[in-house]
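Hi both,

Apologies for the delay on this - the queue was longer than expected. I finally got the adenosine-5'-triphosphate-bound model through. Below you'll find the protein sequence and the ligand SMILES exactly as submitted, and right after that the structure tokens for the full complex including the ligand.
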Amino acid sequence: MSGRGTSLVSLSGHACIEAQYVTKSYGKTVALDDVSFTIPCGERFALLGPNGAGKSTTLKLLVGLLKPDTGTIRISGYEPFSSDAKAILGYLPEDATPYRTLSVRENLEYIAALRGVRDVREATDRFLDELNLREYERAKVGKLSRGNMQKLAIALALIHRPRIVLLDEPLNYLDIPTQERVFKMLKSLESTQIVSTHIMSIATRLTEKAIMISRGKIVWNGTIDTLKSLEQGEEPIESVVARLMTNAG
Ligand SMILES: Nc1ncnc2c1ncn2[C@@H]1O[C@H](COP(=O)(O)OP(=O)(O)OP(=O)(O)O)[C@@H](O)[C@H]1O
Ligand SMILES: [Mg+2]
């Protein structure tokens, strides 16, 4: 990681996401403590860490839903809450709840139109098919099962073909065939991605690199291959990750 005197922004050139010395507290709780990282354009990163580590807070800061107390964040050089950044970002929140009183189709068409999608009908139909939501297109979101609501939330995050995709535990609530469908969909996207997850198979199959946070600090940042190389004997990767998190804590 870069020293305090060096600007990551000036060093990057092709960075899509940059966080420099970011600190964020909720009252007395320090959720992020002097965190810096750079995500080069086109790369996929897993965001790992135990419960309460600061993963969701990190993603909320990157999409401009929260402002850092100190430090700076840039999305392709833009302020996260600027309209320029919003146009290129796609974000799936943790426990996303689409508009409950609208139908599945109405949600998709409304968000597509809001985000300036040229052919709203085509984009809506494509996501209904890709995520197996056709049979629910007229159903009100409030009546959907949790997994189907998650599928819709994923579609809403991706419908405008964002160049930068931030997903907070995207496979939560999904059945196994749908997990595979979403996995393939994410893998096929040509975008810069950060995926927060507790499921190591997502990290190892979807991403090439990982950032690990524990208690608001980055404790590990490197390639998935390096992470795998830390396996001792028959040790599964989950146990490597647990070890790194525990040693850091
Ligand atoms: N709105 C809030 N008000 C007060 N404290 C908060 C709030 N949101 C998060 N926190 C605290 O900030 C810290 C980081 O929380 P965060 O939700 O970012 O963790 P996380 O890594 O996403 O955890 P999980 O794996 O459980 O989703 C925790 O101590 C949490 O209790
Ligand atoms: Mg979280």
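Main takeaway for now: Confidence is low (pLDDT under 50) at residues 1-13.

I'll put the files on the shared drive as well.

H.
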